[in-house]
Amino acid sequence: MNEKTMVADTLVGINGELKMFGEMIPQTEEPRLKQTLKDLRNKCEMSQEELYQIARAKQYYVPASKATEEEVQHVKSLFTQSVM
Fold it and tell me: Could you give phi then psi for residue 68, rounded to 5 degrees?
């Protein structure tokens, strides 16, 4: 297994953990457990960001092109429209 594959697999695993935390945190009522899960999620996010930066630097990952201002405004409008 090469380095690029290991980095990609690790990112997939971290993203799965982040999804898991996103599902668990809102369902937790006990304040200390909720805070512990948030702390773990934050550490996981920092690890994901560090690994992402390494992947970009080594050109293992090439992000999609940046959205145009029109695209950004369109998405913003979707979230700011009143829901009936």
Answer: -75, 165
